């Protein structure tokens, strides 16, 4: 479903991604771990082209993100076409980023109506079903300020799903939450994983990673240092840097 090949990204002279390779199978959960500043957010943002990269490429479901192939040449896509590709990739941020002036239902329904131009009544029915799915069927008319952080993040997940994405990216979705609210968000993510959603999740929740991930990827200084199934990577890491990182977070 996702292929990242030789991805390089610099900010000025700082090379943040230094040739990242990553393969994600359809229906699988990949958890990305790594120290602060190792490039985890930049990697996610490059996958849906919130960041432009200098070298390498990302393809999602056979389409190269940001480019169109003609013969054996690549042409950069217009912003309009990039937006269309991005609509197929859900993104859940640490900070929720809900529209404060819209109800939970309208937050979920907004993009399918305005960006995908789907019929309002159908979108509203689907948005309500998504709110039920994340346990918030009774909060459709609530505004973000009336919801807890955990509830807001569950609305944000429903909003990401409303675009019917092929892939959902999560960037530390529980890091901004009070500890007692983390579980309700992880429960929703676990349900999505069970339902076969293709997910890439940056998180420090190692318990969640152990239970839900098919593959854990350890990123350090802009490179995939080690990857493997949770049992192997967490319990018998092969690389010294993986071991050093895990000894701090476990
Ligand atoms: P992580 O998510 O693993 O903590 P990031 O991908 O956010 O790491 O950042 C990796 C490095 O890139 C950090 O050193 C950060 O300061 C730098 N960086 C990220 N975004 C920008 C930006 N827009 N401009 C300049 N430097 C950036
Ligand atoms: Mg980050």
TrEMBL record:
EC number: 7.4.2.1
Membrane topology: Peripheral membrane protein
Pfam families: ABC_tran (PF00005)
Record SMART domains: AAA
Span of domain ABC transporter: 2-246
Superkingdom of origin organism: Bacteria
Location in the cell: Cell membrane
Alphabetical list of InterPro entries matching this protein: AAA+_ATPase, ABC_ATPase_HisP-typ, ABC_transporter-like_ATP-bd, ABC_transporter-like_CS, MetN_ABC_transporter-like, P-loop_NTPase
Reactions mediated catalytically: a polar amino acid(out) + ATP + H2O = a polar amino acid(in) + ADP + phosphate + H(+)
Cited Gene3D superfamilies: P-loop containing nucleotide triphosphate hydrolases
Chief place of localization: membrane
Keywords, ordered alphabetically: Amino-acid transport, ATP-binding, Cell membrane, Membrane, Nucleotide-binding, Transport
EC class (word): translocase
Family classification: Belongs to the ABC transporter superfamily.
Protein name, as recorded: ABC-type polar-amino-acid transporter
Organism, scientific name: Actinoplanes digitatis
